[in-house]
Amino acid sequence: MAGSTDVAALEESFRKFAIYGDTKATGQEMTGKNWAKLCKECKVMDGKGVTGTDVDIVFSKVKGKTARVIGYEEFKKALEELAPKRFKGKSKEEAYESICQLVAGKEPTNVGVTKATTGGAVDRLTDTTKYTGSHKERFDESGKGKGKSGRENIVDTSGYVGAYKNAGTYDAKVKK
Questions:
Q1: Is the domain of 11 the same as that of 62?
Q2: Amino acid 1: pLDDT
Q3: Could you tell me which of 8, 61, 73 has the C-alpha nearest to residue 32?
């Protein structure tokens, strides 16, 4: 059915979106979240003819009853389902061709990803050498945190009063 559209480019787009955001993904199966991302970024979803609800419904329709993902063949069926809605005036084949051209060759973008800033205020607030009082006790000389021992007062359960000079000498005295 996809005549002039480069099938390899379409499959490559499927793989790129399938592995997006999942380190364990192989690129053989796509989740509903990634399907919605593909539809949104490739402008398949236009807000009028094809909405987010339509995209979710088509995904549920083409996947297996108990499956949570779709393969490449189901992906092509899903595009066929959405094509007439997205391109209303065209025939089924022309609409499918047009929707394939929208998707082919595209890859996911990192839109809206928050980047860490290292402005003056952040540097000043995270500089452990400037800490005073009890906060100073939470870090060692190198500025690395002490963990739990830096946050809590660790109770001495040795039986000796704090700061007692001869702590630990009782057993030696009794054995003599």
A1: yes
A2: 46
A3: 61
Q: Dihedral (C-alpha) 123, 129, 132, 135: value to the nearest 10 degrees?
A: 80
Number of domains in the chain: 2
Q: Which residues, including other chains, have CB under 8 Å from residue 128's CB and lie 6 or more apart?
A: 139, 143
Q: pLDDT, tens digit, for every residue of 122-172?
A: 777 777 777 777 777 777 777 777 777 666 677 777 777 767 777 778 777
Same domain, 23 and 68: yes
pLDDT attached to residue 2: 43
Q: 10 Å Cβ neighbour count for 13?
A: 22
9, 85: one domain: yes
Q: Does residue 99 sit in the same domain as residue 126?
A: no
Answer yes or no: are the C-beta atoms of 39 and 54 closer than 8 Å: no
Instruction: Kindly state whether residue 53 falls inside one of the protein's structural domains.
Output: yes
Answering whether pTM is above 0.70, one says: no
Segments forming the whole domain that contains residue 24: 2-103
For 133: left if phi > 0, alpha if psi spans -120 to 50, otherwise beta; the answer is left
How far is residue 52's CA from residue 40's CA, in Å, rounded to a whole number?
8
CB atoms within 10 A of CB 136: 12
CA 139 centroid distance within chain: 31
